[in-house]
Amino acid sequence: MKTLDILVMVENAEKATAHAGELTELVLELTDHGMDQYFLQSLKATKANFVVQQSAALGLAGVQKVMGTVIRNMLGRMDDRQLLSVCGSIRQFMA
């Protein structure tokens, strides 16, 4: 529900850029959950040993930190049209 609420808020705003922060936090959260699901949970399902799992988790945390900075910079510089396009992409992923 949170995702839909943020998308609706951005899409219905007079200026989408007024809600760039909320959209950025949503994108970061979705990215974190996606990486966890596709990488860490998949690795756990293979019953990889503890050291392998911890190494992957540590590496992924570093990637997420770097990506977070990049995502914040990118979305923070987008105009209304571009932010609405991001919303549209998120909606496509949800379908």
Quickly describe the structure:
By secondary structure, the protein is mainly alpha-helical. It contains four helices and no strands.
Q: Which key phrases capture this entry?
A:
mainly alpha; 95 residues
Summarize the structure in words.
The chain is 83% helix and 0% strand. It has 95 residues and is an all-alpha fold. The model has no long low-confidence stretch (mean pLDDT 95).
**Gap between N and C termini:** 14 Å
**Cα shape:** elongated
Number of extended strands: 0
Order of helices and strands: HHHH
Question: Using only CA atoms, what is the Rg?
Answer: 16 Å
Number of helices: 4
Uncertain spans: none
Largest sheet: none
Return the structural class.
mainly alpha
Helix fraction bin: over 70%
Share in β-strands = under 5%
Average the pLDDT over all residues and give the rounded result.
Answer: 95
Itemize the secondary structure elements and their pairings:
Blueprint: H1 2-12, H2 20-45, H3 50-76, H4 80-94
